[in-house]
Amino acid sequence: MDYYSYEGFTTAFFKVAVTREMIADYARSIEETESLFFNYKEAINKGYADIPAPPCIPMIFWQYIKVPWMNGDDSFIHKYQSINYNEPVMAGQTYTCIITLKSVKSKRSFLVLDNELVGENERGKVIFTSNSTLIGEMKK
Amino acid sequence: MNTLFHLEVGHSLEKISIKNVPSIWITRYAEVSKDFNPIHIDQEAAQQKGFDQPVVHGMLTMGFTGRILSSYMNAHLLIQRMNVTFLAPLQVGDGVDLTGVIKEKSATKVKVEVTGMSSSGHRVIRGEIVVKNRKINSQKIDSIVS
Fold it and tell me: Are B85 and A80 in contact (CB < 8 Å)?
């Protein structure tokens, strides 16, 4: 796959409706034990309007859109990840997301892909920005 | 004032200790994330890439790391930023200790430096989590308005 041809490319916008069930499933998958992420009353007691999601949840949103530059046979290692928030991801909210291949670089015999996932709430406010650096071996 | 903001610089938060990452956890995370890369779920595929056992998803390790702050969280706090570098992969059967130390602190922000050490003695993840105290801003606004 010619990754350079996808540099700057974005996916279409896609919507992710976050539910309490999605948050509970995700929290279980990271072996979370804090009841805040599973119990509505606990979340209310802690001042939230509904159940908040654990901070790394945005990365599971990639499954809701076909990312054309990630559909090849090459495998990549996750090297660096940052997630920035203006608000927490919350149950009952729908986020409009888009993924961009920000840059493609070669470093020695490796290919470095910088991806960005941005999610906005229903009022158009950016809620999270998730940057992922993936490294793969360049095929000759 | 929130308990996290009562802690001093240098304070170590309660460690997340995982004795052994079983393959069922990988399977469960793969189901939730839909990341079924064979390196995570197939031993032969992992061995072809030079690993003895299937490799734990990097984002699963990062998810474990985020749990360091879970017990402190309430609506007055916002995890404003979480950055990590993945240094070495965890494999099925590995254990990992995830620690957080308060590195910087102000009235509005706490920066926690996070590290993960595998049972085989390798550092697998390092990074930082910045937590914002949202209550400070609302208190200031209230005092200006009144």
Answer: yes
